[in-house]
């Protein structure tokens, strides 16, 4: 919401920086909570569910923001940001009252390890590279899809809401399904390593047909192709997020997740630019 009051490029950049600073603790904290509150064979599913929840705003926004922008067109450029940001504050505040459970079968925290030492561990870089290679795909979809629908099919701002909602709803299904798949395989006796990698391989293969989206004969065919790819990406993410709690003690999970996320966001910024 602070970006609504920016009047120059510098103040807008500062507002976005504050947004990133406040948002940065979200995923490391959530992943650590899941790692502390669930056994290994349930973590990916739990992660897939909370990861799907992060798309709720992306589903609501295409409905709300274009309507605000078109309805209050004369109210100034800050109106959509102020109104949508206020809704976000109201919806997010109750979540601070929730406390994670502590599962009796989870491992103890162990000694705290400085995050700088974690950078010398091979497993850290496995997670970092997994995030680094995959996260820009998600941000590419976010920035590219509305422009693609406009350029290819003439879908304007007031019409883009429904296709975007479909993409994000299918992505939510993929997030939960990806976590459910590896969790289910582990319950059948598979090791965490084999179950996570199998689920991630299947998700990666599902993204390949996205190359045919620009050649789709209709808008909804293209939306379906992109939706499957978005779902596969979110299923991949549910498992990558869980790797940190699979391979590191609870005291290091948030540090690993934050380190991987920071590098992935940097790559996403470069790719979107």
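-> sequence recovered:
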């Amino acid at each position: 919401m602070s970006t609504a009051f920016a009047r120059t490029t510098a103040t807008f950049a500062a507002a976005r920086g504050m947004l990133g600073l406040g948002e940065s603790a979200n995923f490391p904290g959530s992943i650590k909570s899941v790692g502390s509150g669930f056994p290994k064979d349930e973590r990916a599913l739990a992660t897939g569910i909370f990861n799907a929840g992060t798309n709720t705003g992306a589903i609501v926004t295409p409905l709300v923001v274009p309507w605000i922008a078109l309805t209050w067109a004369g109210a100034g450029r800050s109106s959509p940001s102020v109104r949508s940001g206020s809704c976000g504050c109201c919806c997010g505040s109750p979540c601070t009252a929730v406390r994670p459970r502590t599962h009796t079968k989870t491992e103890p925290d162990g000694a705290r390890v400085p995050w700088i030492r974690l950078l010398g561990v091979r497993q850290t870089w496995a997670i970092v590279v997994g995030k680094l290679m995959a996260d820009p795909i998600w941000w590419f979809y976010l920035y590219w899809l509305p422009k693609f629908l406009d350029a290819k099919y003439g879908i304007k701002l007031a019409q883009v809401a429904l296709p975007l909602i479909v993409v994000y709803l299918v992505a939510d299904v993929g997030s939960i399904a990806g976590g459910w798949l590896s969790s289910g395989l582990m319950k059948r006796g598979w090791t965490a390593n084999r179950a996570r990698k199998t689920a991630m391989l299947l998700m990666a293969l599902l993204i390949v047909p996205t190359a045919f989206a620009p050649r789709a004969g209709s808008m909804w065919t293209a939306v379906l192709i992109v939706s499957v790819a978005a779902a596969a990406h979110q299923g991949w993410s549910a498992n990558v997020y869980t790797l940190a709690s699979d391979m590191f003690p609870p005291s290091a999970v948030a540090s690993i997740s934050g380190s991987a996320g920071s590098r992935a966001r940097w790559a996403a910024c470069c790719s979107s630019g």
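The mean pLDDT is 78.
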